[in-house]
Model the fold of this input.
Amino acid sequence: MKLADSRLGVLIFAATVLVAGASAWALVFGRDHHHGQWQTQLRAVQPLSAAERDRVEALAKSICATCHGAALTGGVGPSLTGIGNRRSLARIERILVQGKGKNKSVSMPSGLVSEADAALLARWLATR
Ligand code: HEC
Done:
């Protein structure tokens, strides 16, 4: 092999590693970081069916409204309007399952809903 050929090979190899590394980084870290672009690309949230929408709206009204307000625009808990722009779908789901701010005077309780409902609520919250 000529010297020029092997140099080209090394270049192509390096470029491939760079591209693969960047994609892996975006996949792993893009979700929870607040880099709008990647988050939006990865946040292909599956739209809710009419039945799913009815279910989450009933859950929100009966459980979440107590603290977050009737329109979820804030009460003792913060406003959830546009939460999908501030937090990833996975993070919202995790907050619903695990709660948040446990050491604060008012906190987001864990386990308010089942894991299936948490996933549904997260999809709803991420897009509203
Ligand atoms: C007992 C009151 C209470 C109830 C009931 C409650 N929350 Fe919360 N929630 C809070 C408080 C307080 C926080 C802020 C926690 C913190 O950041 O310290 C919070 C935070 C959150 C957050 C994170 C907001 C952010 O900006 O990080 C989400 C999402 C959330 N709640 C969704 C819900 C949903 C959906 C329900 C209904 C299933 C619900 N909450 C029911 C009190 C409540």
In short: Confidence is low (pLDDT under 50) at residues 27-37.
